Fold this protein.
Amino acid sequence: MAAFNDPVQREKIKLFVTTLRHTTLLIRGRDLMAKGAPAGPELKEALEKTLLAKMDGVIASREEELAFALRPFNLKP
């Protein structure tokens, strides 16, 4: 944080260090595969995008995580 003079960037770094870095998903790849998603790089990418959406505050619950992660596979929770 000390390297940034911009207060906006400092606040973003502070938010990540104090809160967002502890964010984890309530779902796993096996949850997606149980719904029909194939194993592979697409599964990993879906989980990564879901984590980012959770960090952005777009999703909060386990059900929302599952629905969001299954979208690229056109699958329903």
